[in-house]
Please model this.
Amino acid sequence: MSKPKTLSQSPLQSWFTRHKDQCLVWLLRGLAAIAGAIILLILIFLIKESLPVLQEVGIKAFFQDRAWNPVEQSYNLVPMIWGTGLTMFGSVLLATPLGILSAIFCHYYAPQSIAIIYRRLIELLAGIPSVVYGFWGLVVLVPMINRLHPPGTSLLAGICILTLMILPTIALVADAAFAEIPQEYLLGAKAMGLSASGTIWHIVIPTAKSGLLIGVILETGRAIGETMAVLMVCGNVVQTPDSIFDPIRTLTANIALEMAYALGNHRSALFVSGLLLLMIIIVLAIATELIDQEV
Amino acid sequence: MTKSITNNSQSSIQDLQPLIQIQQLSLSYKNKPAFQDVTFSIPQNSITAIVGPSGCGKSSFLTCLNRLSDLIPNCQVSGHIQLGTVNLLSPKINTTALRRRIGMIFQKPNPFPMSIKKNIVFPLKEHGFANAQEREQIVEEVLTDVGLWSEVKNRLEDSAMSLSGGQKQRLCLARALALKPEILLMDEPCSALDPISSGIVEDLIVRLRHKYHYTIIIVTHNLAQAKRIADYAGLFWVEEGCGRLIEFGTATQFFNAPEHELTKAYIQGTKG
Amino acid sequence: MSRKASSKLINLDQLFKVVIWLIPLSITAIFIWILSDIVIGGIGQISWAFLTTNPLDAGRDGGIAPILVSTFLILAVCLVASVPISIGTAILLAEFTPNQNWFGRLVRRSLDVLAGVPSIVFGLFGNAFFAQTLGLGFSILSGGLTLACMVLPILIRSTEAGLRAVPQEYRLNSAALGISKTSTLWHLLLPAATPGLLVGLVLGLGRAIAETAALIFTSGYVDRMPTSLLDSGRSLSIHIFDLSMNVSGGDSNAYGSALILILILLIINAIAAWLGSKYNYLYD
Ligand SMILES: Nc1ncnc2c1ncn2[C@@H]1O[C@H](COP(=O)(O)OP(=O)(O)O)[C@@H](O)[C@H]1O
Ligand SMILES: [Mg+2]
Model:
């Protein structure tokens, strides 16, 4: 039989054995609190670093100043917001149909074996580092666009590279959304004599709507946040572009380019653009949550 | 109260009759009652069979007796269970010690994904059996008790997952017996087994009960089995969407002269 | 339906079919294009000497030895910091937190947001917090810790999924034997959840090794062999970036480094797939 343990243990030890589970829970809560607090910490530090310039010149300056010239206290972010917005819109506009169609291919057209291989390929595509996409864009894509219309580093190059990069996101999310459609729906459509494309248009897409919407939000987030690839192919000229062949600079590229030497208000202004990015991401996360709850 | 559970108080409640008194016990999941208002007493060293159709709350009832209900999300228990001198539903109960005294066998045999031997040794270690030799001895003893020793003694280090269904169930039984419980709760222990394994396990229950004087509460679908092994029997039934104890009595009375119409119908229906 | 209309429908169907085969074909083609370009450009660069010598002439010449060392040190710091926190958080969320619990929900939400934060923002944060406020400067430590924050959501999610895949019966059986939750966790649940954990680890590593933007202002650019964790160290991805953007004539070594990076990632992916299949038999 087991010996009575209490006799040989120190009070602390015995307290610990008796409260083993509680001790563990508190330890775990501590670790989880750290994990949960990081986003808060990020927010706090971005705000803290942004405050000096925000207090000095105000928020308006970032939209109304003459230009982006931080050394001369001029902080207009509008061209960069255009850069981020246009690359994002272009790539989301292209990647969404391509990604959804590629998921449809996987689910309803491809033979099982091909679908498995294709999924793997999409996953690999998602895993290619952005710096490799950027490098490939720089040495292959940009010269091609240059022949079409110089200089080559341009909004178009950014959109092309970003499309490739965010396509796996929407494709994988759409794939998961299609997998959840009950088989009966599809059989029902078949029984009604709907054609294949009709089934997809009238049954599959509407049923998977909220899943697809979440996919679009996710890819939007990725497109906004992408830094290295767009930095490498977009030319980084601070200007509001007139054509798709003009070089542009995104908010993210702006931070990456200038952080290395930025001081004082300049550095602070870069944190303001980081804060702006974070705000957008938080809004997107809330949107995802709302869509999720509606289902 | 807690103390008497912690101390290995096998003898202190030996002569208390009845052993378990259940009063107005109810259980609900998310405010949806599973069973209600169950009252009866279980004498010591007896086998009590609980029968009834699926979904009438038999398994839920068993989980109250070893407080496994604590682990099920959204599960509320009310009423009173007296085990010897202990109020079993008191929040102060040391459930670890309680569950050591009350072993449980589940419908689906579920050995841990470890070696056969470790399946028995792991709970022993947890309950402070520090002496390796003593543990080895217990392993052999309980495996012999459940008739597995000769079958597995040469492969004690093999994964328990490699055993057959009947062997797995006997291993689970051995694992529970190793802790020397006084009460065994069995939730349809034979219903996932083939007829032969089922017969073996049934024989075991009877034999072990005589050897170690367990008090056994067994849920079963098999009326013939209940008739063969039980001293007492109770019928659960769903009435108005909620399980109730329809009748409880000695096995002789329950099977030969049931008082309640439902019991009569249930016994006959299964006979015919 | 008239014959004309129905034949038009069939044509639409066929057109759709052509489009739907064309898209994956072109995506595959582009994938092969990118890969083959990197392989063709990089294969000539790779040699034992390339892996084991220092970069010369700003990276145009020589190898990538210190860069590989820095990369692995950054990854090591990242894992050492993130694994305990992730496992602890995942255990809390999966085993000790009822679904309605406010704390669990809060942690889960904030991790969801964290998962979407752009890497450049992590870079800003790492620079302000680790490098400046904690005084770690531009160092491997700063970079690794920044990456640790970044991979937390991935690690936690996959560990949690691994724990949730363990059948509930094990927990009930264990509790019915009077085994404490701590021991159940240690001896039963964690071993059973190990595959999920490892897959998560491998995916997190993949994300970390691909990262560039979060490292530029945390671990820095210095391409010397690091002598301590407080030294600045250049990761492989930053090396590629620097050679292709800032060093004219650096393209050939950039190709070589890119190929190495891709190879490491492929190995990581293969390990993840192998782990996933190896542990599938666990439950019957
Ligand atoms: N964990 C649970 N959560 C919610 N409802 C449950 C749970 N377990 C059982 N129930 C419900 O409680 C009722 C009784 O179930 P149970 O005790 O398993 O019956 P029996 O063992 O007699 O078949 C059933 O209606 C079942 O659906
Ligand atoms: Mg049951």
